[in-house]
Design goal:
heterodimer, A: alpha+beta, Uridine Diphospho-n-acetylenolpyruvylglucosamine Reductase, domain 2, 5-stranded antiparallel β-sheet, 12 helices, 14 strands, 34% helix, globular, B: alpha+beta, Aldehyde Oxidoreductase, domain 3, Aldehyde Oxidoreductase, domain 4, 7-stranded mixed β-sheet, 6-stranded mixed β-sheet, 28% helix, 23% strand
């Protein structure tokens, strides 16, 4: 089936931006594992020109910088997963990225695509949100840095302009006393998207939660940052009582819907509490561990 | 653009919208890369790009510019030229097309018989051409190759793994192959093959193939056999691992057109208007046909001709997959465009969405005779008495879902008009002669004018018994005078072909306190969908097996086989018994629980045994190995879980995880039975090159019939199987073996081949006796030689002698199964039954409701294990399909509209769901079976689902009465408890 007539493989960002600006019917493609299927199955308006970002060196970089990991938006997920600093400093992202798709898909699928596809329960996006990742964009006007959620307009709708390209994600390094975790629940029938997923980052200060970020999906039209739940936990010791309060706060602020053939709202409410407790506890335990050692022993499930 | 493909520089310009898989297959002729879904779901299209495995079906060809691509075709040649792999296995290779055997197996013989190995050919070129990679060799040797369609993807994915990780753990192998699906599902054999290849590449000894131990019936004398019972690799395995195997979509003919079908996409309506003119006018379109253009009969069908080839104007659409027009064009793309130009208008009608509704008097009537396809009845004894005698009575209703075969190879047919006015149909079909008949009737021709040329089949499981695209392709080829290929994509495959029947089954069961059953009453509703297909037969089997493999003094079953507006339901491995076994085996556990009797003991008490009378009034006179199967599984269970396997256990350190075992048994008929004339023909011919050939139209769908036939003929001539080649599925060249269904091939076609071989042997002996003036009894055939008077004549010489005498060294045999009786008349409804017992251990997460199957123990009474290597594939694959039926598979239709219209929405078990499998082959021989063998293909899968759901009950107290298992329901029920 003819789904496009021109396919460009630019070598530089400038080249890519130029094509996007001159051809009004062009669209960027990274791994394409979602986009190509949508095009093939008629779930996406036909696209005349695809601008493939996979050959642009800048989007393929993985760098550990002082304060953050630079993760190129077009790096295949398997490379993100195999890169030791991901495990060590962004454990939630390591866990999430190793669960996306299957091995062959992860060899082409990218974090940029995971975010640009704008699903509210995309595993990569939920982990990035919990890790407070910043997004570096290339635009015709120059580069711009913005928070992750600014990329979202609604379910499956990105806030990015057609001529804008996600270059990389800046993921703050988890420092000593800080850790993150990601979990999801699937169902064995039907589409392999999480019924519910949840990412946590926290900083431990003695026996209290010094700071915390929680992201959950699907709990609204876009990946959901559970600010009130975080508030309920911040500065508290991790006790049953705190967990109960946190669960209440989460159920109060997040919106869980029934999706046919996947999960009822009631089941999601039930799972949200379980995921919150389990993921929180995992992250909490990790703050006490030698991260590097533990990362090696983390098994990839899926 | 320029790219490297298998080491060769290729210059080619990518086409609009082209994916790498199509570039490789269509333009570079590398058809070893298979397309199973085009959705990045199945992994069959895996190739390596710069050493990294990717899915070529969703990889834009243009992106491969400057990259290096390795396909399955490149792997066999990637053997280093200097070098030998450590521990190369000797292999022999005859000419192509002769079903070569690559590897003499170290375990070929169970005893100490001589090895059949042939020396490696000296010719260097020849040797290089067939140098298989150790992965390819080990896949063959471990029986990991069945239908073969997924194998290129499996091997390429495994190859990439071994490049990076020369010593992978089992967990790592599973991770790597996680999304490379195999529906024959010999996942444990695949893992072992990869491990074995890894060992060889590391310079270590390969692993021996793992097959189920054989347990023979006590007191039965064991016949002395030379080939039967040894481990034999498939005759088509080399092609399948090297990517040279041709499936239908791999064929191309000069001038070939591409067809597509306009589907109604409404479940129930009258076609009011149809305008195909715009489609006809589209450049590149060669023909657009509608119902008005069918020269012959308008309907097709297997038993009942109720399925319109195309729905005509003013006629009724009965399901979304109904065809209203067909198009042939120069390219598939043009044909697809033409479909969009066809205008159809429908008057929608009320949709009959389920069989219970279909039986209500005010429901719309879908067929001239109404919605009832058949009311099937089983009557034995006196129900009133049976329930009066009962001390406990239980009643419960169960529901099973529609499921899809999801064979890896979507349907494909190519029709080709020949110069002599005939029509050839290239297709992988389970019933070639039925295809011939249905195509001929549609064309208005005598059967003989149609020639079905059977192709390798990428799985069938019952789903390739009905017509798919054969007739449409033939009509278009007839109209255009050109070859026409009609390939279903996965979406169309899911929408169109018949499924497993959804059922509602109510069971009422009475028993004494000591566990003895007094009465079983069942009422079944079966959803046969829009057309009959084999619905009546399937639901008859569901009904007659609905009181389980038990001696029940009073039994009554009523089944309503109902038409609905859902996709048709037909044959699917298990053939109705999968559904009723789930209901009855759940009830047996409920009864055991109520009576506080051990579930295994309850089954022992009631089990069918020699002398039992079935619910249809059949006295079982032999070959009832159920008690042995039960005992073997019970013993294995005891070793693992002591005396309380059914008590829940908390996983240490994981208080939310509960484990327990569950148990179930089953039986399944071999052959058509029920009074249907059941026969199979085969012929065996000896050629002057000394090779024997066995020919029959029975189908090879991956299950291993060709190996079985080869072994049987080899046994009869006391020679190595390499001396026998097999030709199947060709209506010009092979006699009718009957439908490949009902687990009947080993028994029926096996017997036909055996008797044909014996006839030929006797005829040859008679001729030689005359020529050399000795008694025929003194002539023996051994190892490819005829021994006459102390002289040895090679078989090729024998063939020459016979031909010189003006005769053909060929014998045919038409085998008739022992006579059976129709349901309701008592007597032998079936000539053989296979039996099974299985235990499954599950782990249930009580917080999320998630279920995983950890281990399955299986003992199957197969009569005789003809080829333990092939049998292992059936054992493993059957269990995996049972796991799918229990846990993952749900073909969802809502008010006639198919929700699961993509593979992404229909999940079959991946390698990640593979439990530890321990299997036993139990041999209670059938007198009339070949060497005692009976059916295998279905029984292996039937008890798995109830063993799992019983285990779930044992673990968390939730009774699953609706399939598939819904984890949300488990959580809810636990909360309510």
């Amino acid at each position: 089936m003819s789904t496009w007539t021109s396919y460009y493989l630019p070598q530089t960002l400038a080249e890519a931006l130029a094509i996007l600006q001159t051809d009004p019917h062009s669209k960027v493609i990274a791994g394409g594992t979602d986009l190509l299927l949508e095009l093939q199955q008629g779930r996406h308006a036909p696209v005349r020109t695809l601008v493939d970002l996979s050959a642009i060196a800048e989007l393929q970089k993985l760098e550990q910088r002082k304060e953050a990991l630079w993760i190129g938006a077009a790096v295949p997920l398997n490379r993100v997963v195999a890169w030791q600093p991901t495990r060590q400093f962004a454990t939630a992202l390591f866990e999430a990225a190793s669960l996306i798709g299957g091995p062959q898909v992860r060899n082409v699928a990218t974090l940029g695509g995971n975010v640009a596809h704008a699903l509210p329960a995309a595993d990569g996006a939920i982990a990035l949100l919990a890790l407070d990742a910043q997004v570096i964009l290339a635009t015709p006007e120059g580069q711009r840095v913005q928070p992750l959620l600014a990329c979202y307009a609604g379910p499956g709708k990105t806030a990015l302009q057609r001529t804008e390209i996600i270059v990389a994600f800046l993921v703050p390094l988890s420092q000593s006393g800080e850790a993150s975790a990601f979990r999801r629940v699937m169902r064995p029938q039907g589409v392999a998207i999480a019924i519910q997923n949840l990412g946590v980052w926290l900083r431990r200060e003695d026996d209290c939660i010094g700071d915390i970020r929680i992201a959950i999906g699907p709990a609204g039209p876009v990946p959901f940052r559970a600010h009130q739940t975080e508030e309920a936990l911040r500065g508290k010791p991790l006790t049953e009582e705190t967990l109960d309060e946190a669960e209440k706060a989460l159920l109060a602020e997040a919106r869980f819907r029934t999706s046919p053939h996947r999960a009822t709202a009631e089941y999601r409410v039930h799972l949200a509490g379980i995921l919150l407790r389990q993921t929180l506890q995992t992250a909490w335990q990790r703050t006490q561990m030698d991260l590097e050692k533990e990362a090696v022993s983390l098994s990839v499930k899926g | 653009m320029e790219l490297i493909v298998n080491g060769n520089r290729v210059e080619v310009e990518p086409q609009h919208g082209e994916m790498l898989a199509h570039l490789l297959r269509e333009r570079l002729g590398l058809t070893g890369t298979k397309i199973g879904c085009e959705e990045a779901e199945c992994g069959a299209c895996t190739v390596l790009i710069d050493g990294v495995p990717v899915l070529s079906c969703t990889y834009p060809a243009a992106r491969a510019a400057g990259k290096s691509v390795l396909t399955i075709e490149g792997l066999a040649f990637s053997r280093p030229s200097d070098g030998e792999y450590p521990h190369p296995l000797p292999f022999s290779q005859k000419e192509r097309g002769e079903y070569p055997h690559p590897l003499p197996l170290s375990q070929r013989e169970r005893g100490e018989k001589a090895s059949f190995s042939t020396p490696l050919p000296q010719n260097k070129e020849y040797e290089r051409e067939f140098s298989l990679h150790p992965l390819q060799e080990e896949f063959i040797r471990h029986g990991a190759v069945q239908c073969g369609f997924c194998i290129p993807g499996q091997i390429m994915t495994a190859y990439a793994l071994l490049q990076n990780n020369p010593n992978p753990s089992e967990a790592e192998i599973r991770q790597a192959l996680k999304d490379t699906l195999c529906r024959c599902a010999g996942y444990p054999s695949i893992v072992r093959a990869v491990q074995s290849a890894a060992r060889r590449l590391r310079g270590e000894e390969p692993l021996p193939p793992l097959v189920a131990p054989v347990v023979s019936e006590q007191g039965k004398p064991q016949p002395s056999l030379q080939v039967i019972g040894t481990l034999q690799p498939r005759p088509d395995a080399v092609e399948k691992v090297s990517g040279t195997a041709k499936f239908t979509d791999d064929l191309k003919f000069p001038g070939m057109l591409h067809a597509r079908v306009k589907r109604a996409m409404v479940p129930h309506a009258i076609l009011k208007r149809l305008d195909v003119e715009k489609a006809r006018a589209l450049p590149g379109v060669a023909a657009v046909l509608t119902a008005a253009d069918i020269p012959g009969e308008k309907n097709h069908g297997l038993v009942i001709f109720d399925w319109p080839i195309m729905v005509g104007i003013g006629e009724r659409v009965r399901y979304v997959g109904d065809a209203v027009a067909i198009v042939a064009a120069e390219t598939r793309q043009i044909a697809t465009q033409a479909l969009d130009l066809i205008e159809a208008e429908y008057e929608p009608l009320e949709v009959v969405a389920d069989p219970v509704r279909a039986r209500q008097p005010d429901a719309p009537q879908l067929h001239p005779n109404g919605n009832l396809l058949k009311h099937i009845k089983v009557r034995k004894g006196d129900m009133e008495q049976g329930f009066a005698e009962a001390e406990v009575i239980l009643e419960h209703t169960f529901h099973t879902a529609i499921t899809d075969h999801a064979f890896m190879e979507p349907e494909c047919s190519i029709a080709r008009p020949t110069e002599d006015g005939r029509m050839e149909i290239y297709v992988g079909s389970q019933i070639p002669y039925a295809d011939r008949n249905q195509v001929a009737r549609a064309l208005g021709w005598p059967d003989e004018r149609v020639h079905i040329v059977g192709q390798l089949m990428g799985g069938g499981f019952g789903g390739k018994e009905d017509i798919a695209g054969q007739i449409h392709a033939a009509l278009l080829a007839h109209a255009t005078g050109r070859p026409v290929k009609l390939l279903f994509d996965r979406h169309e495959s899911l929408l169109v072909h018949p499924k497993r029947h959804a059922t509602q089954i109510r069971v009422k069961m009475g028993a004494k306190r000591n566990g003895r059953l007094t009465a079983v009453e069942t009422e079944l509703y079966g959803d046969t969908g829009a057309y009959a297909s084999l619905g009546e037969k399937v639901l008859t089997r569901a009904t007659t097996h609905s009181s389980g493999p038990y001696e029940v003094p009073h039994a009554r079953a009523d089944c309503y086989a109902m038409y609905t507006n859902n996709p048709p339901a037909g044959a699917f491995r298990g053939f109705g018994v999968t559904q009723s076994a789930f209901a009855i085996e759940s009830m047996m556990d409920m009864l055991a629980h109520t009576l506080r009797i051990d579930p295994i003991e309850l089954r022992r008490i009631n089990a069918l045994r020699v002398g039992s009378v079935t619910n249809t009034g059949q006295v079982l006179r032999e070959s009832v190995g159920l008690l042995d199967c039960i005992d073997i599984v019970a013993q294995e269970l005891k070793q693992r879980a002591g005396d309380h396997p059914f008590t829940p256990r908390v996983v240490e350190g994981q208080p939310h995880l509960r484990r327990a075992w569950g148990f179930a048994v089953a039986y399944k008929n071999t052959g058509l039975g029920g009074g249907a004339p059941d026969k199979a023909s085969a012929e065996v011919e000896l050629f002057e090159n000394g090779l024997l050939e066995v020919r029959t139209s029975s189908a090879e769908l991956g299950q291993g019939l060709v190996t079985v036939l080869q072994m049987i003929v080899a046994e009869e001539f006391a020679l190595q199987p390499e001396g026998v080649r097999v030709l199947v599925m060709d209506t010009d060249l092979t006699p009718d073996g009957g439908p490949t269904t009902a687990s009947r091939q080993t028994f029926m076609t096996g017997n036909a081949a055996r008797y044909a071989a014996q006839s030929l042997r006797q005829a040859l002996a008679a001729s030689l006796a005359e020529k050399f003036d000795v008694a025929p009894e003194r002539i023996r055939f051994v190892e490819g030689l005829a021994q006459v008077n102390g002289h040895s004549l090679p078989l090729g010489e024998v063939a020459k002698i016979i031909r010189q005498e003006g005769r053909l060294p060929k014998a045919s045999y038409e085998y008739w199964a022992p006579k059976t009786q129709p349901l309701g008349t008592g007597g032998d409804m079936h000539f053989a039954f296979s039996f099974a017992a299985q235990a499954a251990e599950v782990e249930v997460n009580i917080l999320t409701g998630e279920v995983s199957v950890l281990e399955v123990i299986s003992a199957i009474d197969v009569g005789k294990a003809i080829n333990p290597l092939g049998l292992q594939g059936q054992f493993e694959g059957g269990i995996m399909m049972g796991i799918g039926n229990a846990i993952t598979e749900h073909f969802i239709v809502e008010n006639g509209i198919v929700f699961t219209d993509r593979l992404a929405r229909y999940r079959m078990p991946s390698i990640m769901l593979t439990p530890k499998i321990t299997a036993y082959a139990v041999e209670h021989p059938v007198e009339a079976g070949p060497y005692g063998a009976k059916g295998v293909g279905e029984i292996v899968s039937i008890p798995t689902t109830p063993a799992i759901t019983n285990a779930i009950y044992n673990a968390v107290g939730v009774r699953i009465d609706r399939l598939p298992v819904d984890q949300e329901v488990i959580v809810r029920e636990i909360a309510h408890a």
